[in-house]
Amino acid sequence: MTVIRQSDFIQSVADALQYISYYHPKDFVQAVTAAWEREESPAARDAMAQILINSRMCAEGRRPICQDTGIVTVLLRIGMDVRWEADMGVEDMVNEGVRRAYGHADNILRASVLADPAGARRNTGDNTPAVIHTRIVPGDTVEVELAAKGGGSEAKSKFAMLNPSDSVVDWVLKTVPTMGAGWCPPGILGIGIGGTAEKAMLMAKEACMESIDIHELKERGPQNRAEELRLEIFDKVNQLGIGAQGLGGLTTVLDVKIRDFPTHAANLPVAMIPNCAATRHAHFVLDGSGPAALTPPSLDDWPAITRETGDNVRRVNLDTVTAEDVASWKPGETLLLSGSMLTGRDAAHKRIADLFARGESLPDGVDLRNRFIYYVGPVDPVRDEVVGPAGPTTATRMDKFTDMMLEKTGLLGMIGKAERGPTAIEAIRKHRAVYLMAVGGAAYLVSKAIRRSRVVAFEDLGMEAIHEFVVEDMPVTVAVDANGESVHETGPREWRARIGGIPVIEGA
């Protein structure tokens, strides 16, 4: 009989969440490094360089890899011979660990969890509750797998109830292009096949927590149908040419992980969940001897690289930039931004739309004429930081507001993550505006370009408040130009042709 103490369990959960906030798994760093070394697309190569530089900076500075520090998923396997020395329930202990981790004074993590999701959507303030799955198994230990899953990649989760005669590979190839780049590739695809709808989704999430070993599998060869599918999907998804951050390139996925389970004769449930460039998960076992010990990785595990921005870098002064300047920018061009910008994401856009609907004006301090807005919800600063990690959020969520913002505010452009949809692209073309893309998964690196930060409106929205940032040499890519040309359309199309890859399957 093993005795697991409440304090040890809570501390282990809290320590593990802090650990994964700033340490990438070694296998992930190695896989991205290998992809960076063989990448031929300059834009994708630069995006992966930023991801790797950011990763090392976070390991050194012990600050979050991504500003979206995720919603916590915990998989528990509790031995039948375990006895608890505790006055709290197991789920309450997990949530206390989450609460302590996200409020850690030396490394505050962003609270992103909202209660009343279909109503007031109030931030819980401490990122609780976690999503917890518990199994009671033979043994005398408690095995814990936990992950902090970012909203951008979780939003791209897919499920289908296929007919038994349908092809899983065809469904994946049809579906991945519809996911865009909001899940921050390159990453991992977790796929669950079989069981029931909820079982398939759980297996897909569990698969995301496995180690990257696709190249070892290639060397030894597949031994079952699931491994055959892994290899086939891995090769064919990369042949789509989507590439890092959706910019076009050789590597879209670093691995494909598959779990399966017996299913009803009439069904073929398939779930797919991507894990992003901020892959965060940990595994530990408690045996009654004390809290879990997670060994920090060696900094030698990270490559010593610098960014190669090329010859077409343009420096932009945001305080003097004009519509004529913006009209001259070309898709795929690298810009280094300096000057002041405002921030705003989902809740702020909704509140601005409501103000306009009531005939009211913008709050004092929110003047968007001839300015840029950055879609970001930063982490709170610690110590001498101006702002915490402040990478971009998925821009498509703001698409429905884009025409209104460009028409009513005099906004020149927007900065976010991944592609824009047809509605936003048409609004950008109509108003001769521009959309710039920052690299998702490089939040700490981006924050170092921010010299000053202050909240100017909607302070009650927490991380979704409107800030004013003053930046210096913040790196971005022109993703949609004033003519409505999008690199997220032209880039993958070019690289799919170069690779000689399979065509995108329509009708998803």
Structure characteristics:
alpha/beta; globular; 508 residues; 3 domains; 15 helices; fumarase; five-stranded mixed barrel; four-stranded mixed sheet
Biggest sheet strand order reads 14-15-16-17-19
CATH topology of the largest domain: fumarase
Give the tally of β-strands.
19
Helix run count: 15
What Rg do the Cα atoms give? 23 Å
Low-confidence runs: none
The CATH superfamily of the largest domain is identified as Fe-S hydro-lyase, tartrate dehydratase beta-type, catalytic domain
Level-1 CATH class name of the largest domain? Alpha Beta
Alpha-carbon distance between the two ends: 53 Å
Oligomer: single chain
What fraction of the residues are assigned to beta strands by DSSP?
15-25%
Overall pLDDT metric: 95
Q: What is this structure's SSE topology?
A:
Blueprint: E1 2-5, H1 6-22, H2 26-38, H3 42-61, E2 71-79, E3 82-85, H4 90-102, E4 114-115, E5 122-123, E6 131-137, E7 142-149, H5 151-154, E8 158-162, H6 168-175, E9 187-194, H7 197-208, H8 214-220, H9 225-238, E10 253-261, E11 268-275, E12 281-286, E13 314-317, H10 323-327, E14 334-343, H11 346-357, E15 372-374, H12 399-409, E16 413-416, H13 422-431, E17 434-437, H14 443-447, E18 450-457, E19 466-480, H15 487-499
Parallel strand pairs: 1-3, 2-6, 9-10, 13-14, 14-15, 15-16, 16-17
Antiparallel strand pairs: 2-7, 4-5, 7-12, 8-11, 9-11, 14-19, 17-19, 18-19
Helix pairs in contact: 1-4, 2-3, 6-9, 11-12, 12-13
